[in-house]
Amino acid sequence: MTNSTQVPIALIELIRARLREFFREKGIIFWVFVFPLLMAFGLGIAFRSKPMDLPRVAVVGDADNPHMHGLLTSRELLASSLSLPEAASELAHAKVDLVVQCELTGVTYRYDRLQEKSVWARAVADRVIQTAAGRNDPVATQISLISELGSRYIDYLLPGLIAMNIMGTSMWGVGYNLVLARKRKLLRRYAVTPMKRSHFLLSYFISRSLFLALEVGVLLVFGRILFGTLVQGSYGSLFVVAFFGAASFAGISLLIGARIENTESANGWMNLVQLPMWVLSGTFFSYERFPSYFHRPIRCLPMTALADGLRAVCNQGAGLTQLHFELTVMAVWGLVGYALALRWFRWQ
Question: What are the distances in angstroms from CA 10 to CA 7, 190, 250, 296, 345?
Answer without folding.
Answer: 5, 11, 20, 42, 19
